[in-house]
Each structure stands twice: as C-alpha cells, then as structure tokens.
Amino acid sequence: MSTALIRLEQVGVTFAGQSVLDNIQLSVEPGQIVTLIGPNGAGKTTLVRAVLGLLKPDTGSVWRKPRLRVGYMPQKLHVDPTLPLSVLRFLRLVPGVDRTRALAALKEVGAEQVIDSPVQSISGGEMQRVLLARALLREPELLVLDEPVQGVDVAGQAELYSLITRLRDRHGCGVLMVSHDLHLVMSTTDQVVCLNRHVCCSGHPEQVSGDPAFVELFGKNAPSLAIYHHHHDHAHDLHGSVVTQPASGHVHGEHCKHG
Q1: Which pTM does this prediction carry?
Q2: Does the domain at residues 1-69+141-259 carry the CATH identifier 3.40.50.300?
Q3: In the chain, which segments carry CATH 3.40.50.300?
Q4: DSSP secondary structure string for all residues of 94-135
Q5: What is the tens place of the pLDDT at every residue in 80-119?
C-alpha cells in the first residue's frame, strides 16, 4: 500500500494545442523533499498548479491522500502599496488564526519581529519567511514551495533552505519545491526531478548531476553546478550564530529514469 501524499500518473497538459507537460510521473512521500528543476518554460509552474488542484490535466491522473492538508508558498506576493495590511492581518486571513498562533508561526521561521509591520515595508527575506509562516499555519502534511528564496540575498539563501529542512524534520511533512539554486538545494534534497515538459531524469542529486540528460539540458553550465556538500556537526540560526547538532548523513540511492 502506497504511503504517498500525492502521486501523478502519466499527467499531460496541453495549452492551445501545445504540449506543456507530457507523461509526468511524480510522487511525494511524508518527510521527503522533492525538488523540481528545469529551464524557463519547462512546465514547472504548470505542474505545481496541477499538484495544487488549480488545473485539471488533459491526460493522466493526480491522486492526493484523502483530506490532504497542503501549505503553499508562492514565488512572491504583490500587495498594493496603498493597502493598509500588516503582517499580522495578512496571516489572520488564514481561517482560525489569532495573534498567538500568528506569532508562534513567525517565531518558528525567525521573523517574529515583523508581526506588526506593513507587508510593504519588510525585506525580501522577511517576506519569504512570512509566506512560509502562512503555509505552516495550515498545519500541512505537504508543503509546496515555488522558488522559496526569490528576492533573498545570497547570504540568506542557504539559511532559508536549511530552515526548510529543519521544518521538514520537525513536522514530518513532505516538501515539493521548485528551485534554480542547484548548488544549495542539492545537499538537502532527497530527490531531484529534472523537467523539460517531460521528466528528463530523476533520482538522488548526485546521480542526476551526472546524468547525460541533465548535462544536455543545462549545457556547458552543467559542470559548474557542483554539488554543495554540507557535512558538518553544526547549523546556523537565522542570525548567523552556530547551533550544535548531531551529524546526519542519510543518502537515498535511486536510479535515474528517463521520460
């Protein structure tokens, strides 16, 4: 019996007679981080929309665990500059959320200091953490993150990915993430799915990075996308301080498959 949170079988999507997704096979298990990579126009956003149930595939099927709770973090949020919207009021748009719950979620992502700030005045990194807090308020079994470090400076990107991994460990949720930051996400991802309208290759990051389909897709840039190994016995908090923790070294070996 499958333990998957979500499973896509032979999913195909066509827009105006043009194939956008073809024969997509994908699943996410509890506690698993699956990262979608691919060039612009590869169909990553369309696939996310199918996972969220916002788009019905033309072929194939999308199965979700019954009553699956999903937390979604969009790439970015556009808020009218004249709209009087504080971070607290934004988070309270989630049903059943009061200040106590909102503050707890913000503390979990290291952004409690912005709770009363206008959403228009906070930094890119703070906004991404607020969006992550909003997703967590839904007590998700599956987190769907679309370019979670969009607008975040380089120094904050590694910490944000580390935070996502810690949240996965704490809540035991599955994570489906779209990302371009291969050198950072490869070390914390259980499975990479390389997409270019179909699944070019998928598997453990170290396998995918050497797959001919991956090299062909990213061309001469591929050799520079070295795996970022992060083997040490400490982590950094959101303020850069070192936090000791036991070393972990789990490796999931999966063979690449071609779509």
Answers
A1: 0.81
A2: yes
A3: 1-69+141-259
A4: STT--HHHHHHHHHHTT-GGGTTSBGGGS-HHHHHHHHHHHH
A5: 878 889 999 999 999 999 999 999 999 999 999 999 999 9
